[in-house]
From TrEMBL:
Belongs to the peptidase M43B family. Residues 239-321 form the Peptidase M43 pregnancy-associated plasma-A domain. It comes from the Bacteria. This is Peptidase M43 pregnancy-associated plasma-A domain-containing protein.
Amino acid sequence: MMGRRLRANTALWSGLVMCGAALTGLVASGLPNTAPTAAGPAASARQDAGEPCPPGMEARLSDPGLPGLVPEGGELTPDQAAAYEEKLRKALEPLRSQDIAPPREVPVVVHVIQAEDGEGRVSDERVRDQIETLNTAYGGRFATGPQTTDTGFRFTLSEITRTADDTWFHRFNDHRTTIRSHLHQGGPETLNLYTADLGPGLLGFSSFPQDYAADPEQDGVVVAHDTLPGGGRERFDLGHTATHEVGHWLGLFHTFQNGCTTPGDYVDDTPYEREAATGCPEGRDTCRTRRGRDPVDNFMNYSDDACMTTFTSGQAERMAQHWAAFRGGDPRALTMTGAAAE
Ligand code: ARG
Ligand code: ZN
Ligand code: CA
């Protein structure tokens, strides 16, 4: 499918930020910016913010005007994370433990948005490499050390759609609501993966499974086109932006969610971490009174792609729970629990 689109409605991208300037939240959450420094882009953004944020209070961006789109491109407040957790617990109540298993085939529809001159045209081969990278990552085959987990999740490419439109490509964020309602396919079990130009400071963003019921068409993952394997994005072109965003799509928070403060990322076997990692700070330990070094090699951190190698078994279990609660099971069960519908 190849279409040319006209200008569409502009969705407001309003930022409400604590501990720092508006742009800081976006850059720090999206990672690299245009002018990398030795310390790395996220680190320099953090310094510019002045006052360091207290634990669990990193600069954040939220989007209060757009229900269902709150966490995109930003970080969750402790309250937002707790609200997602509450919905998960409610939705799991009627399920039995044997219902909680990851799917062997998650269908993936990839929507390539490109400029009219061909910029951002991701080849079919690169799309297939991305799916392969997801399968390698979720199969636990990037890790070399003892820490390696096959999450059980596997992904199958079902379709590639192609759209050439300068506005949609260059200003995806402003038009994301329109774009996704035009292109979204399938139900809660289908991964819609969009590629476009997201600007210099943002690698990708995702919706959470809890948001599906209220806004099915907006469900999915968006990544910068050059983050796919071999895409040319410096330090971020091994395809792990998609790995990371799909982790959110399956319900995971960042490993540094809530900083050193309980309940952290709501996963028992990921050590606490005060703030996002940049580069590959192997051996870092930012929560000294908490057990374990920072999970800098975890896909749900902000490290360089080359440094990200693993999910933990706790994360695998949590993804399977979200799958069962919001994406997998009997659609009737979903309606009955009323998950995410409030
Ligand atoms: N924008 C992403 C997020 O906040 C950044 C993580 C991508 N990191 C990477 N190494 N590819 O969800
Ligand atoms: Zn993230
Ligand atoms: Ca943890």
